[in-house]
Design goal:
The complex is a heterodimer of chains A (about 375) and B (about 600).
Chain A: H1 4-26, H2 31-34, E1 38-39, E2 59-60, E3 70-74, H3 88-92, E4 98-104, E5 110-120, H4 129-133, E6 139-141, E7 157-158, H5 160-163, E8 164-166, H6 167-173, H7 175-194, H8 198-205, H9 218-226, H10 232-253, H11 255-258, H12 261-270, H13 279-298, H14 300-306, H15 345-368
Parallel strand pairs in A: 1-2, 3-8
Antiparallel strand pairs in A: 3-6, 4-5, 5-7
Helix pairs in contact in A: 6-7, 6-15, 10-12, 14-15
Chain B: E1 20-24, E2 27-30, H1 35-45, E3 50-58, E4 63-71, E5 82-84, E6 87-89, E7 102-112, E8 119-121, H2 130-141, E9 144-146, H3 193-196, H4 222-225, E10 243-247, E11 259-265, E12 268-275, H5 283-289, H6 295-300, H7 307-322, H8 328-357, H9 362-382, E13 391-392, E14 395-396, H10 404-428, H11 431-437, H12 445-450, H13 456-459, H14 467-470, H15 491-515, E15 536-544, E16 547-555, E17 563-567, H16 569-573, H17 577-581, H18 586-596, H19 600-604
Helix pairs in contact in B: 7-8, 8-9, 8-15, 8-18, 9-10, 10-15
Classes of the chains: A mainly alpha (about 375), B alpha+beta (about 600).
């Protein structure tokens, strides 16, 4: 009969229409009445009716692996970062949205700690490669997807303060991964304990003395362990070479290194041949960087008060470059963000402190449990 | 090939002397001026009836245009006459040897030493499917195709200066040739991209080209606006005037930012030209800047409906280069993911086809609803619903979580068959649909092959060519399934083939979910973020839901691919849009487009 196909189709829609209400009636009081926090994912064959989730009153229960923006895990007990600033995440990041500044001790030697760590969430493509290849289980994917903000600057460039979460938070959102990793770690440590501590012994016999104050000496240990057969002179020479290479590289990086005035000064002197910038340019960049830092420092106090645990001199998102050729004087911090925004530096700092507090509160929920 | 080898040792040179200059590991080097002759011979006498891919590589000494030919076996089916624009193709010229389909490719390469003005004869008269691909090569590398009737930019706009896929091209905000960029670590002070590079936006326009004076050129549509030979138009009794109609790029029926320029005579389509590139994101250029692993999440963004399949295609291509063996369990997981993706893609294709027909959103939402359940599974396994980034070279990112297989089995065994029954009742017999779809947009088997159609488009024209069967990859050779074909070649057949393929996917899924073994998911060894990829080139192709999805990867042994090209099935399927639409009404053109099932993320890349 002509038209029977259409009627059959209408029968299907009618069935669906009725099923919607039947499903709702079955769940009395309706799921819309109280507003359940999280909707469970039930078996596919048991799902009927409307699939719509009434966000934000309701939310789907996320899978454990659900990933969004990366986060940096620190030890909840000691407050130490797991991150060693090795830079693998920055190297594997497809859109290159991770920026890391490695910390240095008083003598200017790099140590295994990030001084600054930025993730530009406006660029991040949520692929999870950073977390996948992190050898220290330090960077993990957060499942907090509610990071919407009104402005890119400064809300969406996450710095160390905003990225850090305690291990307790990580354990709460990804229990399976956490348990597996802890088991692996325990097994590794047990293995290590079983073996005699050979690298440490070598360190004793070596003539190189470690200064007690010089923070984590991991890189030095690594050098020694690898080059156990080398003479102290050789080690010194290799270290000097490495330093020269780094200096040359830093000079190449120009702008980036200049933002760290302490490092930039010796670099500019050490490798003048490699630098493509004129001294004037470098001076100007340095002045700009100093101004940026001054602006940061002026607003640091409230942020530091709110930050959880010992945050290593958390750095804020940089403000845009000063367009004028005139170097900005370090004491006039207001001149800096001229190009960046209509906001005053104080305002930006306040907003950032608020954001950090929000994240801290969220992360704190984890440590509380 | 050996049967045509002469005493000089070079194949085909006894028939066309001087055509093949050299045989290399990766194909035959052909003299540019002999290319059309050789191509015609290969098509007519050797059975290489299918031009799968045209692309180019910028080597330091020369440009290399690469052609991948396959035997699809269409001459075992029937012959037909094809028309493409002004170019008549003689598909039914002479009786041909009946060569069956075979999985091996014949790769032709033309080396163009003149880097200043490279040009090569167009193959459009032999394979009309070369049309859009040759334009793409011209657009990206500036290689001219002599004899191409409509050689102009395709993905980029007319005001674009330069040939972006040449190695010396530097894009806006250029930082370094390859990632990882040095500015990120260990002195990685964050800077906005706008402030980061001294190049700034780096925009240049062609000489004597003023953006303020730019108007859409009308000359480019002259071809379709011309009065055709049949005498419609001026000589007809009824005085009519042709209308040029822009459909899209902001139009609900164009599946994204796609524009078609139609020449209309009343309601009838007399000419059509696809205009694409609105969503061009420099996928291939980015791919050459990236390291190998970095490209994996970018492939998710090609056809964003089928990210798992895209992952698989790219992983296969690179694994071919690296010679990696995939563990059994990982292979099963890959097949399961790829087939779930096919179900998603076909449900959406069918649903949105009805959207185009005016059955507004009921079928589409029914399809999307099932998709949600499959995406739940993807999220549980990979961590993301759409941008899965799940496959790795040699395996998959992570093992399936506990209970996943049971959930999938419940979905595949208990829900999908029921839903398919609903779909059949809802859509299959609908008389309005049958009236609108039958006999619309017909493409014969020979035409479909000549136009390099792939996937459901090809099979709906009666060509039983499915890579899962014709050139099995991964572990597809161990599953039982049928290759679905329909002889009609119209919109209805395409709908039918997609529906049937969902049943076959369910069949494969059931077998795979039952047969999945325990075991490792990655080859032994530490996870590498920078792998050693030996120099060479590989073309990995899979039967994606929308057709033959190919990844052409050239490695020079460094950390980044030297050349990275995607054979996007829907992009090439668009070549036949004009052919299918001419003679039909405007409203039918929308349906014909819907039946191709384009996704602009993949078309524009």
């Amino acid at each position: 009969m002509f038209g029977s196909g259409v009627l059959k189709g209408l029968g299907v829609t009618l069935k669906e229409f009725v099923a919607t209400y039947v499903d709702d009636v079955k769940k009395i009081p309706s799921r819309y009445a109280g507003g359940k926090e999280e909707l469970d994912q039930t078996a596919a064959s048991a799902q009927n009716g409307i699939f719509t989730v009434q966000y934000p009153e309701e939310r789907r229960k996320l899978s454990e692996r659900f990933r969004y923006i990366p986060m940096l895990v620190y030890d909840a007990e000691t407050g130490e970062d797991r991150c060693t600033a090795c830079g693998i995440c920055a190297k594997v990041c497809p859109p290159q949205c991770i920026w890391i500044v490695r910390a240095k001790d008083e003598k200017g030697k790099p140590i295994t700690q990030p001084a600054e760590f930025y993730i530009d969430t406006t660029i991040c493509m949520n692929c999870g490669l950073c977390a996948e290849f992190c050898p220290f289980d330090a960077i993990k994917m957060n499942n907090d997807y509610e990071i919407a903000a009104f402005e890119r600057m400064p809300h969406l460039v996450f710095d160390l303060k905003e990225l850090r979460v305690p291990t307790t938070y990580y354990a709460r959102i990804k229990p399976t991964d956490w348990t597996a990793e802890e088991a692996a770690r325990a097994a590794k440590e047990a293995e290590k304990a079983a073996k005699p501590e050979r690298p440490a012994a070598k360190l004793e016999t070596g003539s190189l003395k470690l200064e007690p104050g010089s923070a984590p000496a991991a890189p030095v240990v690594a050098v020694l362990a690898a080059g156990a057969q080398r003479t102290p002179e050789e080690v010194e020479r290799l270290k000097a070479e490495a330093a020269a290479r780094r200096a040359a590289k830093a000079a190449e990086g120009g702008e980036a290194s200049a933002s760290n005035p302490a490092a930039a000064a010796p670099v500019a002197e050490a490798a003048p041949a490699a630098a493509k910038r004129t001294p004037e340019e470098i001076e100007q960049l340095k002045a700009e960087a100093a101004a940026r830092r001054a602006a940061k420092a002026s607003g640091e106090a409230p942020a530091a008060a709110l930050a959880p645990a010992p945050v290593p001199e958390a750095a804020s998102a940089p403000v845009a470059e000063v367009a004028s050729t005139e170097p900005a004087a370090p004491e006039t911090s207001q001149a800096v963000p001229a190009a960046a925004a209509k906001r005053t530096p104080e305002e930006i700092e306040r907003l950032k402190a608020e954001a950090a507090a929000r994240r801290a509160a969220k992360a704190g929920q984890g440590s509380g449990q | 090939m050996t049967d045509a080898t002469t005493q000089t040792g070079l194949p085909f040179n006894d028939v066309i002397p001087g055509a093949v200059l050299e045989t290399t590991k990766n194909g035959l080097v052909v003299a540019a001026e002999k290319l059309p002759e050789l191509a015609r011979y290969l098509r007519d006498q050797q059975g290489y009836d299918y031009l799968s891919m045209v692309t180019s590589v910028d080597w330091p000494q020369y440009f290399e245009v690469v052609y991948y030919l396959y035997r699809v076996g269409s001459f075992c089916l029937d012959t037909a006459r094809g028309r493409h624009g002004d170019t008549e193709t003689d598909l039914a010229a002479s009786p041909r040897p009946r060569v069956p389909a075979s999985p091996e490719a014949l790769v032709l390469k033309v080396r163009l030493a003149d880097k200043a003005a490279p040009s090569v004869p167009s193959l459009i008269s032999i394979w009309p499917g070369a049309d859009l691909q040759e334009r793409e090569v011209y657009d990206m590398m500036g290689i001219r195709f002599d004899g191409h009737p409509n050689l102009r930019r395709i993905l980029l706009w007319d005001g674009f200066e330069g040939w972006p896929l040449r190695k010396d091209y530097r894009e806006s905000y250029y930082e370094e040739d390859t990632k990882p960029f040095k500015s990120r670590h260990p002195e990685g002070q964050h800077l906005w991209v706008e402030d980061r590079v001294p190049w700034k936006d780096n925009i240049t326009y062609p000489i004597a080209w003023d953006p303020d004076l730019f108007t859409q050129p009308t000359v480019q549509y002259r071809r379709i606006m011309e009065v055709d030979k049949a005498g419609n138009g001026d000589d007809a009794d009824l005085k009519t005037e042709r209308i040029l109609l822009n459909l899209g790029p902001q139009h609900p029926s164009t599946h994204g930012v796609f524009r078609m320029v139609l020449a209309l005579e009343g309601e009838n389509v007399v000419g059509l030209e696809p205009e694409i590139g609105y969503l061009h994101r420099c996928h291939e250029k980015i791919g050459e800047r990236n390291t190998y692993i970095m490209n994996m999440p970018f492939t998710d963004r090609l056809d964003y409906i089928t990210s798992m399949s895209n992952n698989l295609g790219y992983a296969l291509a690179v694994e071919k280069l690296m010679g990696l063996q995939v563990p059994e369990r990982a292979d099963y997981i890959r097949v399961i993911m790829a087939e779930l993706t096919r179900v998603i893609s076909h449900l959406i294709a069918v649903g949105f086809l009805f959207n185009d027909l005016g059955a507004y959103f009921t079928p589409a939402l029914y399809g999307l609803r099932e998709r949600e359940l499959i995406l739940d599974l993807f999220e549980a396994a990979s961590g993301s619903r759409m941008m899965c980034n799940y496959m790795r070279f040699g395996g998959v990112m992570a093992d399936l979580p506990a209970g996943w297989v049971e959930r999938a089995r419940d979905l595949v065994g208990n829900r999908l068959p029921k839903i398919m029954e609903d779909f059949e009742n809802l859509l299959g017999g609908n008389e309005i649909f049958l009236g609108r779809a039958r006999g619309v947009g017909v493409l014969t088997a020979a035409e479909a092959v000549a136009y390099s159609m792939a996937g459901p488009m090809l099979r709906a024209s009666g060509v039983p060519y499915d890579l899962r069967r014709a050139a099995p990859y991964s572990i597809y050779d161990r599953f039982e399934f049928d290759v679905c074909t329909r002889p009609e070649g119209d919109v209805w057949a395409r709908f039918r083939v997609r529906m049937d393929e969902i049943y076959q996917s369910i069949r494969i899924l059931k077998q795979a979910l039952d047969g999945i073994p325990e075991g490792p998911i990655m080859p032994p060894g530490k996870k590498q973020y920078q792998m050693k990829v030996p120099a060479g080139e590989a073309y990995g192709r899979i039967e994606g839901p929308k057709g033959e999805l190919g990844f052409f990867v050239v490695s020079d042994g460094k950390a980044n691919p030297y050349r990275y090209h995607v054979r996007a099935p829907t992009f090439i399927n668009l070549t036949s849009l004009e052919k299918m639409s001419i003679g039909h009404k405007l409203a039918d053109a929308v349906v014909i487009l819907g039946a191709i099932d384009i996704v602009l993320g993949e078309v524009d890349r």
